[in-house]
From TrEMBL:
<feature type="domain" description="GDPGP1-like C-terminal">
    <location>
        <begin position="255"/>
        <end position="391"/>
    </location>
</feature>
<comment type="function">
    <text>Specific and highly efficient GDP-D-glucose phosphorylase regulating the levels of GDP-D-glucose in cells.</text>
</comment>
<dbReference type="GO" id="GO:0080048">
    <property type="term" value="F:GDP-D-glucose phosphorylase activity"/>
</dbReference>
<dbReference type="GO" id="GO:0000166">
    <property type="term" value="F:nucleotide binding"/>
</dbReference>
<dbReference type="InterPro" id="IPR058865">
    <property type="entry name" value="GDPGP1_C"/>
</dbReference>
<dbReference type="Pfam" id="PF26217">
    <property type="entry name" value="GDPGP1_N"/>
</dbReference>
<protein>
    <recommendedName>
        <fullName>GDP-D-glucose phosphorylase 1</fullName>
        <ecNumber>2.7.7.78</ecNumber>
    </recommendedName>
</protein>
<keyword id="KW-0808">Transferase</keyword>
<dbReference type="GO" id="GO:0016787">
    <property type="term" value="F:hydrolase activity"/>
</dbReference>
<feature type="domain" description="GDPGP1-like N-terminal">
    <location>
        <begin position="69"/>
        <end position="233"/>
    </location>
</feature>
<keyword id="KW-0963">Cytoplasm</keyword>
<comment type="similarity">
    <text>Belongs to the GDPGP1 family.</text>
</comment>
<keyword id="KW-0344">Guanine-nucleotide releasing factor</keyword>
<dbReference type="Pfam" id="PF26216">
    <property type="entry name" value="GDPGP1_C"/>
</dbReference>
<keyword id="KW-0547">Nucleotide-binding</keyword>
<dbReference type="GO" id="GO:0006950">
    <property type="term" value="P:response to stress"/>
</dbReference>
<dbReference type="GO" id="GO:0005737">
    <property type="term" value="C:cytoplasm"/>
</dbReference>
Length: 396
């Protein structure tokens, strides 16, 4: 069986065309056989992690002619789940606009997500323990799991990584919206760990699509489920955080302050897999551990982008940026606002809930909503000093 015209972004000018004989990630026709089929494995090695040659097309419309095995597996399986009706709504073409102004916000109208997404759990602490009685990923339907992601066992150059389930988000933000979940039966709370962060970074490198991004919301940072997971999704639009300027905060060049974006954030950068990526994972998790231990909510966003330093307008994406924002805690969804501020909004992607808000939203109004979620300057400075000190410990 062949798959043709594997559309990565619904209704977009960017399409992913591919023909493949790969069928193992599709469910059997009879749903009674889904559980018996088991979860297929997606096993990858270091050589499949793409560092160079990824860039945004200069002219639209355009197609990515050389998708990766990862893109093909994810998108064919995800599209089949759409056809099987496993989502809370069928994601159609999303109205999209770039808001006029200096930031370059990408706003999308997604009414169904605003209305039909699962009600967030009752969260009271960034360090709240996992509760098996609440909804968690052990309670999903068998068909919602696309595949199990893990490294080749004989890939000696890689740190051994635990298996990660790739699961559909039944209330998708965009085409291909999935969750990366470490072994669900472990009952891990929503606190970032090195293994799942490594998986998130490597899925970005496994994709040839410049707009495949990964992110994490902490408890209090609008995570709606207290069960460890990352988000991953395709968005065929450049975002401000890809090339925004930054300044080094430590002599070793390990931590930067991202500037001229919707919200100042801490930037970590890697040019590719190997020791540099492992060091970045360690630094990021030390930073998020500090924030969690001090009851500070946070959001994290992983995207291909330019090296730290001056602003870049280049379409070529040379490495991976990890941006971390410390923010005010918000335990619940605020009603009546155009959008909720979490990982994608801080990066410049605004899923808007109503047509009225979508048609009237301005850059000024978007910035006001985002800045209302930021910490007071004195507390932000204190956190910056603490993270710089953490990075300095690495040099000792």
């Amino acid at each position: 069986m062949y798959f043709s015209s594997l559309r990565i972004v619904s209704g977009s000018s960017m399409a992913l065309l591919h023909y493949s004989k790969e069928t193992s990630y599709l469910l059997p026709p009879n749903n009674e056989d889904w559980e018996e089929k088991g979860i297929p494995d997606f096993v990858y090695g270091q050589k499949e992690l793409i560092v160079e040659g990824i860039q945004w097309p200069r002219n639209a419309p355009s197609a990515l002619d050389i998708p990766t095995r990862f893109d093909s597996a994810l998108c064919s399986a995800w599209r089949q789940r759409v056809e099987l009706g496993l989502f809370r709504y069928r994601l159609g073409e999303l109205q999209t606009q770039t808001l006029p102004g200096a930031v370059g916000f990408v706003a999308q109208l997604n009414v169904e997500r605003g209305v039909q997404r699962r009600r967030p759990q009752n969260i009271k602490s960034v360090r709240q323990a996992f509760d098996p009685e609440q909804f968690n990923f052990n309670k999903i339907r068998p068909g919602e799991v696309l595949f199990r992601l893990h490294r080749k066992p004989n890939d000696c150059r890689a740190v051994q990584q635990e298996d990660i389930l790739v699961i559909i988000n039944v209330s998708p933000l965009e085409w291909g919206h999935v969750l990366l979940v470490p072994e669900p039966t472990l009952g891990l709370p929503q606190r970032l760990l090195p293994g799942v962060l490594r998986a998130g970074l490597e899925t970005v490198l496994l994709s040839s699509h410049p707009g495949f991004r990964v992110g994490f919301n902490s408890l209090g940072g609008l995570a709606s489920v207290n069960h460890l997971h990352l988000h991953g999704y395709y968005l065929a639009h450049r975002l401000p955080v890809e090339g925004a300027p930054s300044e080094a905060l430590d002599p070793g060049g390990h931590l930067y302050l991202l500037q001229a974006v919707p919200a100042p954030g801490f930037l970590f950068y890697t040019s590719g897999p190997g020791p540099d990526l492992e060091a970045l994972i360690s630094r990021v998790c030390r930073a998020t551990d500090y924030l969690t231990d001090h009851e500070i909510a946070h959001n994290l966003f992983v995207t291909r982008g330019a090296p730290p330093g001056k602003a870049s307008t280049s379409t070529i994406l040379t490495g991976v940026r990890v941006i971390l924002w410390a923010r005010k805690s918000n335990f619940g969804i605020k009603k009546g606002e155009a959008f909720n501020v979490a990982l994608c909004e801080l990066a410049g992607h605004l899923p808007v809930k109503t047509y009225q808000d979508f048609s009237s939203l301005t850059e000024e109004a978007a910035l006001a909503l985002i800045q209302d979620c930021l910490l007071p300057p004195a507390q932000a400075d204190e956190i910056q000093e603490a993270l710089v000190a953490l990075m300095a410990q690495e040099e000792l």
